[in-house]
Amino acid sequence: MGLMSEYIKKNKPIEELNSELRELIKKYNQKKDTYMVVHASAISKSDIPDVALNMDDYYAIIDLIRDVESTNLDFYIETPGGSGEAAEEIVRHLRNKFENINFVVSGEAKSAGTIIVLSGNEIYMTETGSLGPIDAQVFIGRYRVSAHDYIEWVNEKWKEAESKGRLNPFDATMIAQISPGELRGVEHSLRFAEEIVGKWLAKYKFSKWNVTETHQRPVTTDMKIKRAKEVASELINHGKWRSHGRSLKINDLEDIGLKINRVDSDLELADIVYRIQTIIRLIFSNSNTYKIFVTQDNILSKNATVASPVMPINEAMPEAVEAKIECEGCKKIHELYINLNGNKEVDQELKSKGLIPFPNNSRLICECGTENDLSGLKNDIESKFGKKIVN
């Protein structure tokens, strides 16, 4: 049985999932003699602007670790990316407080999240974990484009104009609209990530790289700086990865010169990390929570507030809601009703029509044996009508 199936079968409420998450973090700390911080965003809820990394996250993390006395930190991170400046501030604070910092990635840590991860002394990843390119994304007119591709295109047109003495009318029109200030801004955005990642890799990730693996030669500071610049240059190369959202797995990262610690090689550690990831997914899918900050001692969460529908003055609140559910296994359609007021007459009327009441545990068991999770539907209806479902 997979971990997700195991937890769905247990059907734990959010409060119990939060408690188990903290216990798993405590177990991780004991195994590795460290202090773990979990910072995760619900990447699937991308319609919420605050899901992206921002300065509020920086302040939340500072508050969470204010009284931590350990000199070791393991930081579990899941994020779609966001502000590079916020990433820089988070790393500065962590580096001022802790001597040794490891990052743990089992989900996605993209863009600005990748920048943070590359400041670690060690990077631990599961087979499901992924980082991403760090090429800056900038707005040109109404469109968001890769800074790397934009600069490359401008340079190509510059060379073309020098060699031919002219440009075609379309390119000439486009180039004429670019101001020197705009071009400098794009260049600065591109170099920002490349420079700080290069600096952090040389200082932290490569700090214990003292002998070359093949020839066993001493590694100099210049060699560390050179390797760090090469890795950073690869990660900003949009032409290589083709997509800013590309998932870079362990093998991809090792191919460009990064050594990654494989969590799956330690079965006990892997079980803890995968359970942490699974519980995070369940918290996000079964609640309005879209961002969490967790340690063994504390938990902070951000929750989306769903606006209640505006009801016409003379329109009555419905006593029940009908829903058709397609079984994920056999595709059979089940007709359910949700009682909003506990009216017994409504129960009798809808049952007489062949509808079945919404299950108490939000789990619909089909005749084919498939268990269908209705927690999301329950949360949506309760949020929409501002009432608890009465079973």
TrEMBL record:
Signal peptide, first to last residue: none
Pfam families, alphabetized: SDH_protease
InterPro entries in the cross-refs: ClpP/crotonase-like_dom_sf, Pept_S49_ser-pept_pro
SUPFAM superfamilies: ClpP/crotonase
One of the record's GO cellular component terms: membrane
This protein's name: Peptidase
Record organism: Methanolobus zinderi
